[in-house]
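Deviations from the work plan: none for this task. Representative record:
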Amino acid sequence: MSVADMSVAAMSIAVNQAASPVLQVANLRKSFGGIAAVDDVSFAVREGEILGIIGPNGSGKSTLFNCVLGQLTPSGGEVRVDGRPTTGMRPCDLNRLGVSRTFQLLQVFPQLSVRDNLIMAGQEHQGSMLSRLIGRSDAGLGEAADQMIEFFRLPHLAAEQAGSLSYGQQKLLDAAMAFMAGPRLVLLDEPAGGVNLTMLAYLRERLQAYHAEHNATFVVIEHQMEFVMALCTRVLVLAEGRIIAEGAPADIRENPIVIEAYLGH
Amino acid sequence: MTRLGAIVLAVAGLLAIAAPFFLKPFGIYLLSMWAVLTIAAIGLNLTLGYAGQVSLAQGAFVGIGAYAEALLTQAGLPFPPAFIAAGLLCFIVGWILGYPALRVQHHYLAFVTLAFNTLVFLVLRNEQWLTNGIYGINGIVRPIFLGWSTGKALNFYLFSLGILAALSLAIWWMLRSPWGRAFVALRENPIRAASLGLDTRRYTLMAFAIGSSLAGLSGALYAPLVQFIEPASFSLSMSFNLLLMVIVGGSGYFFGPFVGALVAVLLPEWMRVAEGYYLIVYAALVMAMMAFCPSGILGLAERLLKAVSHYGRPSPAIGAERTVP
């Protein structure tokens, strides 16, 4: 283990001990028929952490995500956000508690402009439905949207329809949207999927910059190992619906159980 | 809005005000029908064009509004409260009809709303004690508004035009507020919208309720315009006609319903030169238009404008034509 890796590990331990968990998942289970896609999974995410969740195809990563985010109702177990139980909560209510997400497949609003996509991503957090009707067209978020556009260096595209952007640019917008409401916790579902290496490095750099600036808390599901190892402070490995390993990125990379799960028997 | 848009709008507004002074009573009647049905089409454009919820029941709401206005005024209520009651009643019924939309989408939702339209038709026909059944309601009086009688064709047209203008302004305001963005987000990607905190249930119901209430207000003008209403006026054919207006004008464009209603009300009359064949010619024109320009007349106009201004530059991506005001 290199010195740099050790310091990352030490940092993550320090973070673990310092704060109360932003996200707590306890004994979560989800079965489809007789198959347990998520089987008794427990973990906690502390403030300021970037937790990576990796695992081979079909290991239950997406199901776990969907249970945490209210897209699926778990068969058992509990999810807490800042100590508050959120199991079975509707996605929109969960989001207003400060849990934000991106999707595996691109999810921007193609016919809205880049700027309107960002305002949309924050406006439902502003006031009541009635106050939004009589209030300003940009819900008071115009400046915040422009700052976010600046942060992701997309100003030349602000007025363009999101659908006319390149795939990589839409991916950046997608991530920016997840940050618009100033969330407590951001869950990123395969952010690297389908993105070329240059754009990937840029996306990672922006995520890290945002993390550093806001002490944000991320959970990342990802296939792309390099991306996870470079971005995350701690990694969970899922196989057949269970957590088989947990630790600092460098440890995970050399863990024989993990290598076996990925390469097969 | 661009300068070109402002000029077109000003000219269209002046034409709408000046036109009846050059027309015979039947022409004015047609223009009034345009103004009245445009209100219902604006409602459907909101539900379908902006929020993406298919509804084949808009004609039924026009019927509910028309019967509400006719029955209430004949019971002695003045026009303004009857007008508002018609809108309110349709808001509530529309809100309730929105519930199926929380479970089913697209053509399944179309069938649910289609069944609702038939249900309303049957109630209007069979509940004779209330609606006078197939005999309909006769002698609906045109209102006296602030001491000004709208009895004459010209006056009633100007009255309808004023209400159309006021309602358009209100809807324009709503669509430029964060609600307009939320409705488009609901149409384009409800799952993503929910993940951003948008209460999809509330906005879906709201889209149905507001769209339906506009149909109710349109019906409350329709009754005094035609002065005789019967259940058959509000069968499926009116819903299809309103749908046609929205699609032909340009679904999701603010001014789409204005243009679509103009085509749907006037074109069949102009086609009368083809005598017995006029409906066939009309149908063929609509089919050709839909085949070559599914985004409607305003979609076509926008494409042409872009082609002129972007001449020599690469064209924008497919599906990128629609704008949100």
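The interface with chain B takes residues 69, 71, 90-92, 95-96, 100-101, 103, 107-112, 116, 119-126, 129, 132-135, 137-139, 161, 163-164, 177, 180-181 of chain A (CB under 8 Å).
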